[in-house]
Amino acid sequence: ELTKHKPTRVINCAGKRGTPNADWCEDHKIETVRSNVLGVLNVIDTCYQLGIHVTQIGSACIYTLSEEEIKHHPPFKETEEPFFQGCWYARSRLLSELSIRHYPNLLLLRIRLPIAADLHKNSHIGRLLRSEKIVDLTGSGTVLPNLLPGAIILSENAVKGIYNFVTPGQISNVEIMELAKKYIRPDLTWQTFGLDDMLNTLRAPRAICIMDASKLQKKLREYGYEVKERREALEEVFQIMAEKGL
After folding, report:
1. N or C: which end of the chain has fewer CB within 10 A?
2. Residue 143 φ/ψ region, left for φ over 0, alpha for ψ in the -120 to 50 degree band, beta for the rest
3. Res. 201: pLDDT tops 80
4. What is the C-alpha to C-alpha distance for residues 39 and 35, in angstroms, rounded to an integer?
5. CA dihedral of residues 8, 110, 146, 17 (deg, nearest 10)
6. What is the tens place of the pLDDT at every residue in 136-183?
């Protein structure tokens, strides 16, 4: 297909996360590796051989901290070596990044908790609104309406390297629910529970991290695009959803 259509650039979003959540990967290890490791490597290596720039949508779930550590540890920068492989999904993403990061034609965008202005089952908002209880936790998130145009800009300009593709600041599940109540679900109620309680319901640990977005902000400013801070970006999401009548 690449030789037939001769694209100037490729954006690869394909990958396995699992349904209803990443625990799916624990029982589907081969499918996860074939998609997140072998599939990714095949796309990037083929593009390399054909001289095509490729943007790979990767994952920031390759770092983690304890609930106490996250209060004091500075946000993770792109220069810090990734290490988390406590669940099979994270391990596949870690192996993928380690395998591809040296390719000179690669732009790797690490996303975390994608937040879209819709109720898709894999959007973080959609998952939260379907939950009776939510974990009271903060971390990095990727607010898509503001950040996706930035991905196109980076691709069009053939930017290379690794970027934490996250919205600046710490995003709280409770804050998201409060905004949902304000804009689209006035009767919304919820209960919160602790991280340990959440982990007890899962088969494998999850990555809990805050990522540094300063490199991304600086690069996009070079092209005249501004990455919005957490609150502004989240407000925009729910304003869009309210306009859609969701």
Report:
1. N
2. beta
3. no
4. 5
5. 100
6. 888 999 999 999 999 999 999 999 999 999 999 999 999 999 999 999
What tokens were used for 20? 């209803």
195 pLDDT higher than 80: no
Look at residues 128, 146, 149 and name the one whose alpha carbon lies nearest to residue 137.
128
Would you list the DSSP string of the chain? -HHHH--SEEEE------SSSTTHHHH-HHHHHIIIIIIHHHHHHHHHHHT-EEEEEEESTT----TTGGGTSPPBPTTSPP---SSHHHHHHHHHHHHHTT-TTEEEEEE-SEE-SS--TTSHHHHHHT-SEEE--EE--EEHHHHHHHHHHHHHTT--EEEE---SS-EEHHHHHHHHHHHT-TT---EEE-HHHHHHTSSS------B--HHHHHHHHHTT--PPPHHHHHHHHHHHHHHHT-
| Main-chain dihedrals φ then ψ at residue 165, nearest 5 degrees | -90, 70
- pTM (predicted TM-score): 0.94
What tokens were used for 141? Answer: 């998130």
Tell me what pLDDT residue 19 has. Answer: 80
Distance CA 107, CA 48 (A): 12
Kindly report, residue by residue over 30-77, the tens digit of the pLDDT: 999 999 999 999 999 999 999 999 999 999 999 999 878 888 899 999
Beta bridge partners of 192: 134
